[in-house]
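Quick start: read one record
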Amino acid sequence: MMGLSGRNRAWLLSLVAVSWLAGCGSQVVNRAPVEDRGAGVSAPVPVAVDPGAAAQRPPPGIENAGKPGYYTVKPGDTLIRIGLETGQNWKDVARWNGLDNPNLIEVGQVLRVVAPAPAPIVASAVVTRPVVPAAVTSTTVAPVSSASAVAAPVTVAAAPASAAPPTAGGDDDVSWMWPAQGSVLTGFDEAKNKGLDIGGAAGDAVLAAADGRVVYVGASLRGYGNLIILKHNNTYLTAYAHNQVLLVKEDQTVRRGQKIAEMGNSDADRVKLHFEVRRQGKPVDPAKYLPPR
């Protein structure tokens, strides 16, 4: 600014100052707006989720794995199949394990498949009160002869008839009959065929093989079609598969020889009855239990 007059120099400095202030103003105007979210409210913070956390959670009941009376759920299992494999009513299994939704079970889960032991009966406390002796009066006691000192015979009451021991047969004492009149198409094979396949025509009667109670009616068990499962006692179940019509309901009591279904070919390659006998859940050869024809 050499050569400028004092007035010109003052004017030039004023111009520079105004330009600098204008630049500062433009920076303030162009700043990004600040959003006021209100006091006490903060922006959401993203939380890292470990996708394997659920997989690392131990299945329910894992502490009972391998114990007698417990079953570990395998891939493809349903509560209906577990009941069949363990010889139990699937509703009982759901109740013993507190399952609100019987369809929600997971692989590796360990389920109780025998009835829990009843709770021990705790005797109520007995209040003992002191015995106040009665007043004693003076009296003469006649001498007792040796003959009268002999104790009288004690009569022991016989046990009531209800206390008699159970019959020797127990749960194995079941009166069996053939569930259908047709000929046997396929015999028992523990690996390939867990029962007998009995031929017939569509609509032929399917009969209860023994007295029992219906524990399942439906078609949710893959490979069995329209299926009925009867529970005869604590040892035996029977299964009747591939029916076209089901004539009983769950929890219904049936008698030996009662018609419970009509033969069909649901989930099968031909009309037939697939009949199984399960002893404590294990498939056994029905021919060894049914009477000779």
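The helical segments are 6-29, 53-56, 79-86, 90-96.
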